[in-house]
Design goal:
Elements (H helix, E strand, L loop, with lengths): L2 H18 L2 H17 L7 H25 L1 H6 L7 H4 L4 H22 L2 H25 L3 H9 L2 H10 L4 H24 L1 H7 L4 H5 L1 H19 L1 H4 L5 H22 L6 H29 L1
Helix pairs in contact: 2-3, 2-9, 2-16, 3-6, 3-7, 3-9, 6-7, 7-8, 7-9, 8-10, 9-10, 10-11, 10-13, 10-16, 13-15, 15-16
């Protein structure tokens, strides 16, 4: 084998491992975890809890993503969006993938348990198992409500960030979990509408496949209203202030507008646009929480 090809193989393998961690998804989760850390009551600046907590949460989230690649490799082969994933293409073997995912899980749990606190370690592990085993291994193939039930696992990061610096559960992070929980179904159902042929080919019972696109659009629209109501709970409970409330209303109105266009076929590609905006919505909503908290701390 030529030397340059032999040298490149380990590099390509690590690139495939990196792809298996779904870095963009993990980064969005970490942003919400950081907001949970920032909003939590704390003495001074707990640097160790923040840095090590971030690493532990990231490792376990990345492990869940890697396990998703391993469990779904046959499904991934049938979907245009995922057919080129490392395990589906055979660039990473099951043994290599399992070893990588296990290493991430062990390191993530150990650093959280011994250098942060046991509560955060167990909650993060439970979140990973909920996504990688319960959702990916069972719910995804069992019911069109898969993303509703399984969405709780992906909604946990704000609570994990909070417990990392406080060692206890609080009311505000539970509200943030509820926001992400309400956000998840319309976010994924819009993608499922856009990629309905993929899910049909893979025989995955996503709502557009089992109940039709029109029914799914109605659910996206209704969940958008639920999300708007839930997003105002931190203001209603006086945990966050007026700046956050205004941002939540503006962002919620814009999301409703996209999903109104989706419901009535007012825009070409509205499902894909709704899906993309939903990511921006969540990111900006959590930034608004941070800005509001910072402003209130100076007043």
């Amino acid at each position: 084998m030529p030397k340059d090809i032999a040298t490149d193989k380990p590099i390509r393998l690590w690139r495939d491992f990196y792809e298996m961690t779904k870095p963009k998804v993990v980064m969005l989760m970490l942003i919400t975890a950081w907001v949970g850390m920032a909003l939590a009551p704390k003495q001074g600046f707990p640097l160790v809890a923040i840095v090590v907590g971030t690493l532990g949460i990231a490792f376990l989230a990345a492990s869940g993503a890697a396990i998703n690649h391993l469990v779904d490799w046959k499904i991934d082969q049938r979907m245009a969006r995922t057919h080129n994933r490392p395990v589906a293409k055979g660039r990473v073997s099951m043994q290599q993938g399992l070893a990588f995912a296990a290493a991430l899980s062990i390191v993530g749990f150990v650093v959280l348990y011994f250098w942060v606190n046991p509560l955060t370690a167990w909650l993060t592990l439970a979140s990973m198992v909920g996504y990688a085993v319960i959702y990916t291994g069972y719910l995804k193939r069992a019911t069109p409500q898969n993303i509703v039930i399984g969405g709780l696992a992906g909604a946990m990061p704000p609570l994990l960030g909070w417990t990392a610096v406080t060692g206890e559960v609080g009311a505000l992070p539970l509200l943030l979990v509820l926001i992400i929980f309400a956000w998840t179904p319309p976010h994924f159902w819009a993608l499922a509408i856009h990629r309905i042929k993929d899910y049909q080919n893979a025989n995955i019972p996503m709502m557009p496949v089992t109940h039709g696109i029109a029914y799914t659009k109605i659910n996206v629209w209704l969940y958008s209203w639920l999300l708007l109501a839930v997003s105002l709970l931190p203001f209603a409970t006086r945990s966050l202030g007026a700046l956050y409330a205004v941002c939540a209303l503006v962002l919620g109105a814009r999301y409703l507008q996209w999903n109104w266009w989706l419901l009535h076929d007012k825009k070409v590609g509205a499902a894909w646009s709704s899906f993309r905006f939903s990511i921006t919505y969540l990111l900006l909503l959590f930034v608004a929480m941070l800005l509001d908290h910072t402003l209130r701390s100076f007043l």
